Each structure stands twice: as structure tokens, then as C-alpha cells.
Amino acid sequence: MPIRPARHPLLALALMLLAPATLPAAEPTYRDDIAPILESRCLLCHSGEQAPLGLRLDSLEHLLAGSQRGPVVQSGNPADSELIKRLKGTSQPRMPLTGPPFLDDREIALFETWIAGGLAPGAPGKAETAVAATPSTPKPGEAVNYSHIEAILGRRCAKCHSPSGLMGPPPEGYLLTSYAEALAFGERARIVPGSAEASEVVRRIRGQALPRMPLDGPPFLDEEEIALIVAWIDQGARDAQGQPAIVPVGARVRLHGRLDGRWQLDGLPLRVNAATRLDKSPQVGDYVQVRGRLSGDGMINVERLRPR
Which residues form the signal peptide (predicted)? Predict the structure, then answer.
């Protein structure tokens, strides 16, 4: 028989007092609440031996160890914890560097409550978060795709080339926090799918173009990392699913390097014609700037060439 609502207010109050109390929400723990957020938003950069400033966030032990500058969490004191300051943007650059979107208010509040509550590790026996964001290595015969080079860009390049990087706005507006942004060619193409030699990004990380990148080097990218990025571009700058990028025919390019032959930039053939503007009589051996556009056959139609 269904229970009808009590009509008398005193009876209604009594029924409310007799109802079971709502249990308070469980306090957040590292393993249940914090680790999954770190894994999805932070391990791209903060894992492995090359984590920025040695700050690894791939285990509770590493998180508590902090960075080369000291602890990033202070038990019971979220307001003075560097981790919270970075997540909120009161310390720059704001984290994660791939933001926006950054962590939302609910996620940040979860970190604050966890720190205020004493950094509870969670129930024993539960697995630590997996180290999932270190650079993956292509299998033999597998084409290099964005997932193989994403962590390199995240650790070494996005610290500046992000919306709120170490230099403030990204240099020249160029972002390296996602596949689409890296391949963008609105102002000019920095990555030319199928041609690493014509890609400004490659010339910068090799030091063929100055200043060499990343700007906080040395150390710069090592030979293995550079070779992986070169292979990725030469094989079509594929996305994480393996789909090659479309060559942006007609896009502007701006390259720096050394003329090592007549109309050849560090071995890259250039298409120079009567319409090309040649400033200050560039000679073989000169360090030059080349401005031009990508043609349908993959060549660069040079519009301007000048010594720098």
C-alpha cells in the first residue's frame, strides 16, 4: 500500500527526523581522485626522466618529491602549494600548458580538498596511475604518427608555444599544444607534410635556422628526438590515427638557412624566377632568409631571398 504524504506538519517533521541521515561525501584520495586527472592532463609532460624541472607526476612518491625547486604540495596548506597556484594561474605559466581548457573549478577544488585533508593516498592495493604519456616508439614497419612525437613537443616546446607560456603569448602566435595547431598555416606553414627540409620547425630544432629551438636549450632535442620528428613530417605528418595531413598548397613559408649551392638552401632546392626579389646579391655560403609559397609539386616558389 503506498504511503501518503503526512498532512500534519508535526507528523511530517517527525518523519524527516526518523529518516536515515545522508552520509557525507568521501574525502578525496590520490589513487581514486587525483591520479586519474594527472594521468589525463599532466603526464604528457610530467613523466619520465625528462620531466620539466624533474617534476614527475606519475606516482604519489614522485609528486611528493616535488621538483628541482622544492615541494609542489604542502600538506594541509593548499593556498601555499605551488601545484594549486599553477592550476589556478596565480603562478605562471598556468598548467597544464595544453590549456585552455584548463582544469575546471570542480577538479581544482578536488586537489585543494585533497591537500587540505593531508594528501591521503587511498586504499592499499589499488594500482598507481600508469606512466602512459612517455613518447611511444613506432613498431617496426609502422609509420610515425602524432602520438609518437606529441610528448616531445609537450615537454620541450609547449612551455613557450602555448596560450600562457613562459614568454606570455606564444611567439608569433604559433601554438604547439595540439595536432591541429602545429599544422595550422594561417600566417604561414611551419610544418610541410612530406618535406621536413622545407619545414621551419625542423630547421629550428636542428639549428639550421637561428635562434635554435627550444629557446631554453642547451640541452636541445637529442638526435633520436629530431630524427623522429623528421620521420613524422617526411611520412606525411600523420595524426594520431595515422591519417596523413594535406599539403597546404599556396601557403606562405619563411625559412632560414645557408645557401650551399645556386638556389639551394642546405640541400633544399628553391624555385627562383624573374619575379623573385633578390636583396643584397645573396651568395653561396650566406646565411639567408627565404620567403615564398608552396607549389603543387612540393617546391617552394621564392618571392624574396636576402642575406641575414
Answer: 1-25
Long-range CB contact pairs, 194-199, < 8 A, 24+: 194/233, 194/234, 194/236, 194/237, 194/247, 194/298, 195/233, 195/234, 195/298, 196/229, 196/230, 196/233, 196/234, 197/266, 197/267, 197/268, 198/253, 198/255, 198/268, 198/294, 198/298, 198/300, 199/233
Q: How many CB atoms are located within 10 Å of the residue 285 CB?
A: 10
Q: What per-residue confidence (pLDDT) applies to 25?
A: 59
Place of cell 606512466: 131
Q: Which residues pair with 30 in a beta bridge?
A: none
C-beta of residue 162 within 8 angstroms of C-beta of residue 178: no
The pLDDT tens digits of the residues spanning 179-212 come to 999 999 999 999 999 999 999 999 999 999 999 9
Interatomic CA distance for residues 216 and 160, integer angstroms: 10
> What cell does 70 get?
622544492
Instruction: Please return the burial class of 48, using the count of CB atoms within 10 Å of its CB with bins 0-12, 13-18 and 19+.
Output: middle
Q: In whole angstroms, what is the distance from residue 67 CA to residue 279 CA? A: 49
* Three-state DSSP class for residue 224: helix
Query: Which H/E stretch holds residue 110?
Result: helix 105-116
Fold of 249-308: OB fold (Dihydrolipoamide Acetyltransferase, E2P) (2.40.50)
pTM for the full predicted model: 0.72
**Domain boundaries, given as residue ranges, for the chain:** 30-116, 155-246, 249-308
Contact 251, 300 (CB under 8 A): no
The owner of cell 624533474 is 54
